[in-house]
Amino acid sequence: MNRFKTFLKNTIIGGLLVMLPAGLLLLVISWIFGLIRRAISPITIIVMEKSPAQGMIADVLVIAVLIILCFTVGVIVRTKVGKWLHTSLESKILAKAPGYRLIKETIFQFLGKKRSPFSSVALVQLFDSETLVTAFITDEHENNAICTVFVPTGPNPTSGLIYHVPKSKVFPIKVSVEDAMRSIISCGAGSSTIVATRRSCLENDPL
Asked: Is the same domain home to 61 and 92?
């Protein structure tokens, strides 16, 4: 009887482990598609009024047209004339619009055109001591030798302190953001990968 209960329990749990991720993925895809449909709904309505395309077909048609439009604009801005037009339009009109730069930087980070502030992990020496803290490089300043880092506090990595330190005190390490976050959330448990890099990062040149 116990074997049957164990078999039943393990089988159900195994099924859940397979079905839950797949179900969540479908929910996320459905949610994203819903957002896209709502965003393009004004254009979709016009398409449905002017053509026989209705419902899902109209949505797919609008998305296809937008993709082709983005591709066409991308090809144009790669030319000298296109670059000049884009630069002129951005500097004279778009850059003066409130929130344009914030929106542009957000989109660039989302599309991977700009390095994420939390994409690089480092060990940082603070206050001229031998103590090393786990930090994320959030900004590098080209005109001076200062580097801005965010030192998260455990177990909540969303809170922490911001330091502007000399680049000579910042040692980037080959540790993934996931491993660093896991160490912070667990209040230092599982930091063997980070600690193992201590000697090598001190021997190597800093930023």
From this structure: no
Confidence (pLDDT) at 20: 86
Task: Give the model confidence (pLDDT) of 67-84 as tens digits.
Answer: 999 899 889 988 988 888
Q: What is the dihedral of CA 92, 97, 102, 105, to 10 degrees?
A: -30
Question: Which pLDDT tens digit goes with each residue over 23-53?
Answer: 888 888 888 888 888 888 888 888 888 888 7
Range of the domain at 103: 77-110
Assess contact for 154 and 181: CB atoms under 8 A.
Answer: no
User: How far is the C-alpha of 133 from the C-alpha of 189, rounded, in Å?
Assistant: 14
Domain assignment present for 125: yes
DSSP strand E in 157-204: where?
160-166, 170-172
Domains held by the chain: number: 3
- Match 């005109």 to its residue by tokens: 143
Let me know if residue 95 belongs to a domain.
yes
**Model pTM score:** 0.46
Predicted pLDDT of residue 11: 85
- Tokens coding 161: 């302190």
Question: Does residue 71 sit within a domain?
Answer: no
Task: Answer yes or no: do 125 and 97 share one domain.
Answer: no
Say which DSSP state 94 is in. Answer: G
Same domain for 55 and 105, yes or no, is no
Residue 141 φ then ψ, to 5°: -100, 120
